[in-house]
Amino acid sequence: MKKVTIDQLVIGEGEPKIIVPLVDSSKKELLAAAQKISQLDCDIVEWRIDFFEDVKNPQSVAEFSHELKNVLNKPLLITFRTHKEGGVLPLSDEHYFKIYHTLIAEGRLDLLDLELFMPEEPVAQTVTAAHQKGIKIVMCNHDFAKTPAKEEIISRLQQMQKKDADICKIAVMPQTAADVLTLLDATREMYENYADRPLITMSMGSLGMISRLAGQAFGSAATFGSAGTASAPGQISVMDLRKMLHTLTLTK
Length: 252
Prior knowledge:
The protein is α/β, with parallel strands linked by helices. The protein is built from 9 helices and 11 strands. Strand 8 (about 165-170), helix 6 and strand 9 form a beta-alpha-beta unit. The longest helix has 17 residues, at about 175-195.
């Protein structure tokens, strides 16, 4: 199993790593939030640029990533979550990839979120460009309506591996307790039988909250915690999340 190393952080071993989202819109708000998050016991910060008021200006996004990184002093994941997968801003595919390639060329970041079902050729080009700069790719898929069948969840994670993601991520919405079990069992099977790199999986909402805590037992290498405004339903505060993860740590 490959691990992903960023400075002293190793994703894919030990307790699941905690990722905290930044979802403010203005530079002033983002810097203030980043200052607070820099003091928290979290491992990675995700800047959700679809919330950023100047996101349609790729140069501005790239330039501001330097300011954020300086304040955070933690690994930085940058994400434009598309509208079809739960993001807040409709944007053309062309503009999406333009922002990403400007970030890769001129920004300062450690990881870049890339959606599995974006057009195949630009996805491949973006993965290659990011890797040439030492930027890790978190390839993802989100279903805010339902939980796909176990075989489909596994298939999507395998597709991410084939597209050379460094980390494969899927988040689904449960309608029943059985849906939560489906996500957890798909994670276990993928981890035990097919995965050769870290996975991040979660069942969203209150019903799926257990999946954010029990990742280590099933094979998920990271989870998302909230420092204020959550970026997805079911996120737990960072302070509570760290305590819970530590309590649930598997000892050899």
